[in-house]
Fold these 2 entries.
Entry 1:
Amino acid sequence: MSDKKKNTSKNDLHLENDHRITTKRSLSTQLSTELNKTKSGSTSKRQKSLLICVVCDDGAHGYNFDAISCESCKAFFRRNALQLQKLKCRRNDGHCDVRFNIKKRCKKCRLEKCIETGLDQ
Amino acid sequence: MSDKKKNTSKNDLHLENDHRITTKRSLSTQLSTELNKTKSGSTSKRQKSLLICVVCDDGAHGYNFDAISCESCKAFFRRNALQLQKLKCRRNDGHCDVRFNIKKRCKKCRLEKCIETGLDQ
DNA sequence: CAACCAGGTCACGAGGTCAC
DNA sequence: GTGACCTCGTGACCTGGTTG
């Protein structure tokens, strides 16, 4: 079977080793979990941006393309996933900073970071 | 239902190394699985997934629409059973792989497989 | 009354849209 | 081109009727 399903347990989740949770309902679980710890469990509605985008460190609210990523990296990856060959890094020879607070992010380096960090179409 | 479901586990999440759970609710599942192993080894409640879905080879827990099928194929068939005419296979001319571990399953081919394997509304 | 299954529910995430 | 927002299909879980 897949790995899917099942579940049913209400126990801990320790994802160690690179576990990835790619699942639907599990996320909230995760989040709520954390919320519960700190707050008292309110888990508002949307705003569960307690997650950090693996690509740019911005806030994320779940998985996109199999990795915890923000809306902008999701959209970026969606548009550019197949363009790697066509892109060129014109500044730092492939070592540009692509974090969210950087003004003009190098497309080539951003895409490479996406791929490295596991985004997968 | 708010967040429906459950899972609810309120415990930690440690995402470290590379595990990947590629599923939806899998998280907890996985965990539980492991828990069960170590703990009492039982398959808790549902978990009678010793059966294999005739459509996608995923774990199944019984008959749905007259065939042994998983939750997802059951839901898929429920929604699409009458849509065969409207669907088109855009990739492999009607020969797409529709097993559970395939990322984007072709609806047309999945529905045809459902019908071929005997799902019947 | 326990097990089974059809159908309902709804969080999640992929893709679309559009103001900028 | 970018990124915030929206829409909708998917699938895990729930509910309720039926059957033994």
Entry 2:
Amino acid sequence: MREKTVNLKRLSEHLGLSQTTVSRALNGFPEVSEKTRQKVRDAANKFNYRPSPSASSLATGKAGIIGHVVPISEHRMINPHFSDFLAGASDAYAKAGYDLLIRAAQENQEADIYRDFVSRNRVDGVVVHGPRVNETRIQFLQSIGIPFVVHGRAGGEEHSYSWLDVDNRSAIEKLTNYLIDQGHRRIALVNGLEIMNFAHRRRLGYAAALADHGIGIDPDLISSQDMNEPYGYETTIAKLDMPDPPTAFVYSSVLSAIGGMRAANVRGLLPGQDISLATFDDKLSFLQANGSGNSLPYMTSVTSSIQDAGRRVGEMLMDQISNPGAPPACELWKTDLLIGKTTGRPHAG
Amino acid sequence: MREKTVNLKRLSEHLGLSQTTVSRALNGFPEVSEKTRQKVRDAANKFNYRPSPSASSLATGKAGIIGHVVPISEHRMINPHFSDFLAGASDAYAKAGYDLLIRAAQENQEADIYRDFVSRNRVDGVVVHGPRVNETRIQFLQSIGIPFVVHGRAGGEEHSYSWLDVDNRSAIEKLTNYLIDQGHRRIALVNGLEIMNFAHRRRLGYAAALADHGIGIDPDLISSQDMNEPYGYETTIAKLDMPDPPTAFVYSSVLSAIGGMRAANVRGLLPGQDISLATFDDKLSFLQANGSGNSLPYMTSVTSSIQDAGRRVGEMLMDQISNPGAPPACELWKTDLLIGKTTGRPHAG
DNA sequence: ATTCAATTCCAAAGCGCTTTGGGTAATTTA
DNA sequence: TAAATTACCCAAAGCGCTTTGGAATTGAAT
């Protein structure tokens, strides 16, 4: 039962060929005849030969691995958004023969990890998660010369590196505009942490929509924290309990929107009727019906699949790894506005 | 700025020592004097020397990587449960100098991937996710001889391999008993897919509690599917619309419980008052307040942190890798019953 | 002073692959 | 038929580390 570990040497001896020829046959080099190549392939299959990744990576300098380093600390990056992103990325990697490697980073360890990655090429490239408003990793990665793609953007030199981002600003602007069109004037923004670039941009979109309609910004209607369910709940409760409560809520994540729904429920308000709830929706898979999925979207939202984003980021990174010379690639994804059942005209207060 | 890639050879030349000595000094072998060792360490730090993982893994046969292979297909394994598990595991790995590798598997590819992992040791061990009732991977992994730990259990030879599981049966039994004690007689079970071992066991716990109280099982009150929000919603709605609806619901996951809450809301029922909702709670981080966390638990639940489970499984696997001779380790975790606000005595129907 | 053991270090042989720099046989051109 | 390509194939040199099997030095014991 135990797999007999057959290596290049043994395989080539068995075939009566040199290691060179066998290696070239397997790797598709033109210097070997089709007949020989086929013979080699058959033998490789028969003996279940698989080249050792450490040996070939030692010889080529290619690891065949993409690295994801995630901060494990206070602001948990490993969350449902992340896992959906991973699902997309790992699928793309698997199809192209890459593996996905995750390393958890304590506070301020990230630079060390990147340096470690590159100095002995444990990985061929990295994806950068959760860029901040003041992002330092990008410059650093450029300086140590490792291929990378950012999921999101930092400010500044946007065309000096590769990234994929959704148009957060216009997404939330669109959503806010819709609520305003419905007649809402007091609209709360339950945002993510605004040191994160995406949350910062969403705030801008919110502000722009209000400004376009001559509605002043009430700072009491805005909050900014890590996006989780209790945050959405607490914030919504607090705002509902204001003397002059908002009639509509915009959430930066379905996770906090779920908390908002719970808050509405507890306060006896039916979303869509007594109160309007809308959200940015990453199409997290645990919220998707896995059957035909023909059910109408429940919440009014602007949507963009973070799983698709993960897949695409993975592809972009692999492209960049295989053509080192190519210029940075940037993609800005638009979002779809979906009208669900959780919004309506403001309730006669 | 570009990192100068200093290797063992260069480092030893600079020190005027042999590669052997430098290697041994760094790896803590006793054959080298403390004075020399310190000198070597200092130089290594100064030049930022880091051994190449591919080279050392080629020489030692150790990859320094733990593999997680996850089916990417229909039954999405990459979900919030998985990401919390990963958060724990990757933290444990990082502390011990291991990396975490994920490979997405298409249907029926798993065995191939394991074979690939072991035949050229890309990884030193794997963790097995989501064991089924009829589980084939365990035997296979034993036969190809790679260290592994199962998150969960399969039936059969429970002491022939290492696993960590929560006591799913007693957890749901406990929860169901509590509801029965509250006076409920018609209790719905919104279970996970019962081809999964954990869901099968939970079903047994549910059945045992009912049987203990002489309550018959109504198959119409039981459902079994992938645990996501829409499933929880649809199922709850459907059951609520029955002629003789249940007064209490037990969910196998907070993900479907959230859907259940939504259903209650839509039907105008307040959990804890008009209807009772209880769930198995893996303490998913997105549902945890990230501050002091002193908020009372909202839902009545049996809880066990899947993130802690991930951490522990990681540790167990690393232990097993470093003592290959050791007997299998098994841990069965108890759950805590927490009384929240979503349950109460049955409503006078 | 001599012997022996412990200490400290080293040269060189792998680990399994890729790739350079030819070589030889088969095929085409003059 | 001889010369020049072309098609196929190979030996051997790394890639950067660990580890085997000594060798040289030191200090204590005789």
